[in-house]
Each structure stands twice: as structure tokens, then as C-alpha cells.
Amino acid sequence: MPTIWDHDPETGEIIEQPKSNAGEYSVSEIAHALKRTLEDTFGHVRVRGEISGFRGPHSSGHCYFAIKDEGAKIDAVIWRGSFGRLRSKLQVGLEVIATGKITSYPQKSAYQIVIENIEPAGVGALMALLEERKKMLAAEGLFDADRKKPIPYLPRVIGVVTSPTGAVIRDILHRLNDRFPREVLVWPVRVQGETCAAEVAAAIQGFNSMVRKPDVIIVARGGGSLEDLWGFNEEIVVRATAASLIPVISAVGHETDTTLIDFASDLRAPTPTAAAEKAVPVRADLLADIASKHARLRGGVRRLMDERNTRVKSSARALPRPDELLALARQRFDSASGRLEQALKANTREHGARLARIAPRLSLAPLKAVIANERKSLDLSGLRAARALTRLVEFRRQRFESVAKLAESLSYKSALRRGYALVRNDKGQPIHAASAVKPGRALTIEFADGEVKVREDSPKQGRLF
């Protein structure tokens, strides 16, 4: 065996010590080896105990607390992503069943459970959690009676939130067909399990967001244990039900089962079949009631008409005859028509006399004076207009003559009169340089008193035609 040398602390002598063959490990190696051993040995476990030291999520979103019983305590961690998916609300003293993985935290040489799911243990814990949640939601006013909406008497479309494969939907459809067939829209959801609450809330919100909304919504499932019905106690379901603009009928479980959706809904039915009965009336009863009221209406109208006919006949016997009613009016008309001719003649004579008295005072002198004044005013206006027109014509003539003289002075003909000539080619275009003249081409020379046609034979000599 290899040896090592050491010294005696009392005497200071060097002594020989045997050397061990055991391998050396670092602290990190030991810690990670223990971590792997714990994870490989236990893997996923379910631990039952009481929550201790829970103070809510850390600023990072993770939760750190402990689970204990009478004899031991284990640290627990819930990562932020898992905490957001938990259905149960954690609180100190609540007995729970935690599902997760046993591992260690090397920095503290401690073992812990990383929880993936946690749920209350036993009915007592669930009831305590349910009561606390009920008080919280009631304090927010979600269960107030004034929030309840009336159920329509005869809805055209009924939305049903339930499992599409269970007996519940068959019972609802059967009862609706028996009472009053209506159009039914089924929104399939899971009515039990982890995704139940989210699916039910999404279904209620989905019906509310449709363009052609149903007139009433039935949320239904069959009976079950408290754990089975727990999805209908979740806040997300209660809040979606309270916020629904469409009336909601809850029919979860049997008559003795109570969930929080029952308090938030607009009407609670003890069973899914009862929900269908509350949603629509009985068609046969309605038809019978309408027939009865129709018969009563016809009988009432007949009796009313008979009574009015009798009253009319009785009143007619007390009335005088038409000839008697018109006799006095006819007499008054004959008397008035006899006096009318005389009154018209007297009126004519009176107006003639008044005209005769007024006629001498009438004269055309004022009218003639007005006409004379108007004529003088018209003659004066005409004279002023003639003068203005004459001045305008003279001004325009002078301007025209000035422009004509200017145009004449600027014209090339004035240059021709001073002894100049204008040479054009056979196309009538002016020629400005001798280089533009080519032999054999016809030219036109314009003078002040006329034009002369020539032909160019050479650059130096021209020939007249």
C-alpha cells in the first residue's frame, strides 16, 4: 500500500501513515451524483401533505413552499409555467396531493419535489376551497339577482355546451322534440378533467361572439362526484357565465349537486332534461291554449255584435224619420232663396249709387303726371347712354389706329419702301445667306412695287426668266 509522511503534533516527529485507495470526488460531483440517484430512483411521485410556508408566487413567477405531515417536511417548487395551469388555489394549511419529480438542490444540499400538478386531498379540502371561492365571487357581485337575465319564452336557436357523446345531449334533444322542436347548436366540450373549465368558458364566449347568436345557452352534464364536477366551480367558468350577454341555463349534475356556475347562471335547472323543459314551452299545450282563446274570442265577438245590434235597433226606434229631420231645413232654404234675388238687386243699386257719387272726383291728371315724369327720366337716361356709347366708340377707334400704325412700322414692307429687297426660294421661304442658294434653283425677289422671278445659274451670276 502506498505510504504518506506526516508529523506528530505533540512531539513533532515525522511518522509514516498508510495511504487509502478510495477515489477523490469534488463537492459538485457528489451533489450531482446524488441528484441523478434521486431522480432515477423516484421519478414521478404523488405526495400527500399539508401546504406550509406558501406566500404566493416569487417575482420570477415561480413558487417556493413546503409540504409536511406529522413526521417530516419536504421542500416544494412550482415553476411559473406549471403554476399558471393549476386549477386549485394554494393556501397555507390546505391538504393536497402533489404530483411531481423528486430531485435535489445542490447549492443547499437539500432535496425537493418539483410539482407539476396539485389538487386538494379529500372532499373536506375541496369543500373548504369551494366555500372560499364562492365568498370571493359573491363579494364581486357575480351572483347578484339583478344581474340575472330573463329566459326567452320561445327561443328560435338554443346553444348547448356539453359532451357530444354522452347521454345528456340525447336527453336534451329528445325533450326538446317532445315539447317544442327548435334549432339546436351543440358546442362540444370535455365535461371532466383538466381542460374542462377552459373549454366550457371558451364555448360560452364563442356563442356570444357568433354573428347569428343563439337565444339561450344550456350548460349541461350528468351527475358525478365533487371532483368530477370541479371544472364547473372554476373561476374562468363562473366569470364567463356572468359576462355572457346570452341568458344561460345551468344543468350540471343531479338535483342535489350544486356548483358555482349555478349561482352565476340566469336560471338553474336540477337536471339536463329539466333545462330543456325550462327552455321551451309544450307545443301541444300552446296549440290547445290558442284554440281555447280563439273560441272564446269568437264567442265574445259574436256576443258583442249581438249586443250592439240590439242597442242600435233600440236607438233607431227613438229617432225621428229622415223626412221630419229635413223638413225644417227645407223650409228655411226656400225662405232664404226667395229673399236672395231681392237682396242681390238692392246690393247692386247701392253699389251703383256709391260709384256715381265717387266718379266726379276721379281724374287722370295724377296718372298723366307720373307718366310724364317717367318719360323725362327715360329720355335723360337714353341721352346719357348715347353719349357714353359715342365716347366708347371713339376711344376704341383711336386705339385701333395706334395699333395699325405700330403694325405698319414693324412690317417688313416698310424696309422694302426704303430700297431693300426680300429673296425667297421656290417654297416661299426667305433666304438669309448666299450659301443657301444652290445652282438651278428658282428664286423670287420682292421689291416695294412688285416681285421678280429669277433662276440661279452660278453662285456669281443670276439669270432672269
Q: What's the tally of helices? A: 12
Instruction: Output the helix-strand order.
Output: EEHEEEHEEHEHEHEHEHEHHHHHEEEE
Mean pLDDT: 83
The computed structural class is: alpha/beta
How would a crystallographer describe the biggest sheet?
Answer: 5 strands, mixed, barrel
State the helical fraction: 40-55%
Strands of the widest sheet, in order across it, are 3-4-5-7-6
Could you tell me the number of beta strands?
Answer: 16
CATH architecture of the largest domain: 3-Layer(aba) Sandwich
* Level-1 CATH class name of the largest domain: Alpha Beta
Query: What portion of the residues fall into strands of 2 or more residues?
Result: 15-25%
**Uncertain runs:** 461-465
How many angstroms does the end-to-end distance come to? 149 Å
**CATH topology call of the largest domain:** Rossmann fold
Return Rg in Å.
Answer: 60 Å
Q: Looking at this structure, what is the CATH superfamily of the largest domain?
A: Response regulator
Rough shape? flat
Describe the structure.
The chain is of the alpha/beta class and 465 residues long. The protein folds into 5 domains: 94 residues, Nucleic acid-binding proteins (OB fold (Dihydrolipoamide Acetyltransferase, E2P), Beta Barrel); 152 residues, Response regulator (Rossmann fold, 3-Layer(aba) Sandwich); 29 residues; 45 residues; 50 residues, no CATH class. It has 12 helices and 16 strands. The strands form 4 sheets. Strands 3-4-5-7-6 form a 5-stranded mixed β-barrel. A 5-stranded parallel sheet has the order 9-8-10-11-12, with helices on both faces. Strands 13-14-15-16 form a 4-stranded antiparallel sheet, with no helix packed on it. The C terminus is likely disordered.
